[in-house]
Amino acid sequence: MLQFYDTKPPEQMINSSRLSAFLLVVFLAVSKAEAVEPSLQLKSQLQAPPQLQSQAQAQPMTVLASLHPLALIAASVADDVETLVPLNITPHDFAFRPSDIRRLQAADIILWAGIESEPYLERFVQRWPDKVWIDISEGHASEGGDHNHDGHWWLSPEMAIRAQQRLTQALGANSTFEDEVREQLRHSHQQLAPLSERGFFVFHQAYDHWVEYFDLNQLGSFTLSPEQKPGLRSLNQMRSQLARGDVTCVFTEPQFSPALVASVTRGLDIRLGELDPLGVHISVTKDGYAEFIRDLTQRFVHCLADSD
Predict the structure, then answer these.
(1) What is the chain's percent helix, strand, coil content, to nearest 5?
(2) Distance CA 96, CA 99 (A)
(3) Is the pLDDT of residue 144 over 70?
(4) pTM for the whole structure
(5) What's the alpha-carbon Rg for the chain, to the nearest Å?
(6) Cα–Cα nearest to 153, from 114, 95, 105
(7) How far is CA 21 from CA 13, 15, 30, 32, 144, in A?
(8) Residues 6 or more apart from 170 whose CB is under 8 A from it?
(9) What is the pLDDT of residue 36?
(10) Is 174 within 8 Å of 168 (Cβ atoms)?
């Protein structure tokens, strides 16, 4: 019969047994630590200060601007701004789609131009009063007794500044918007002041706030709104006024056909310029509104200043 004998000396056998027992203890200790560590981490997370937990869970507020020029104002302080009315549609032609209603419902803050300018939003203001509705037209009577109700409120720099301040407060943020805009306005005043006596016509009555702010000499407009086309008698009166030589420039707009203006000014020594009250070519960036003012200023200067 075969028999197996341990050839190790007794002392080595004892040492080997002690080593095995030691390693077993170490293994069990490490395993227990690994099992406990996740629960300690979870306990640490559950016991985190409430303010830190709320900050981690808080989502940025969604800002929706009804019109592109209002998006230029909102982008000065909000990181992500959506615009309700598409660039290829004027507010005069806008009609709601189901997707537009969903975007309104999803927004936390809506910057809009007020009931006079955007009556199609009034029912949604009433439907969702829990949202933050910032109406740029609020407080227009405080502009030195101004009773101008032209609905293009964003062309009043002071009203734009006040609306942006309300948005900044609603977001709990800080902004240098007012300083940057006032710096641009200072340059615009310097450029436009020497041209304040130069007469001009605009395509439609959209620039009253701008004209009053810079004390410019607007002598007339072809129409009060794009939906109201002037009759033949009005066009003949305009041409007679243009022929007297008091008008330096006639401004058209990119959203509408210039054929009407071309027919009235044909054969007259009058410059033609182009103004865009919506600033659709201006990118929605943090300095977009200041750029809007700069660009509009340059368009007035280019058409009203002496050609030489």
Answers:
(1) 50, 10, 35
(2) 8
(3) no
(4) 0.78
(5) 34
(6) 114
(7) 12, 10, 15, 17, 92
(8) 61, 109, 132, 134
(9) 41
(10) yes
Amino acid in position 62:
T
Range 131-136 average pLDDT:
97
The DSSP result for 139-186, as a single string, is: TGGGTTT-----S-GGGSHHHHHHHHHHHHHHHT----HHHHHHHHHH
Q: Which residues contact 95 (CB under 8 A, 6 or more apart)?
A: 120
- pLDDT beyond 60 at 69: yes
Specify the pLDDT at position 254.
Answer: 87
Q: CB-side exposure of 202: number of CA atoms within 13 Å?
A: 18
Question: How much is the average pLDDT of 4-11?
Answer: 43
User: Does the structure show a pLDDT above 90 at 149?
Assistant: no
**Residue 261: other Cβ atoms inside 10 A:** 21
The Cα–Cα gap between 301 and 297 comes to: 6
pLDDT, averaged across the chain? 82
Tokens found for residue 266? 């044909």
List the strands of the sheet with 271-274, edge to edge: 217-223, 199-204, 247-252, 271-274
The whole-number pLDDT of residue 7 equals 42
**What is the CA 154 to chain-centroid distance, rounded?**
12
Q: Are 292 and 282 spatial neighbours (Cβ–Cβ below 8 Å)? A: yes
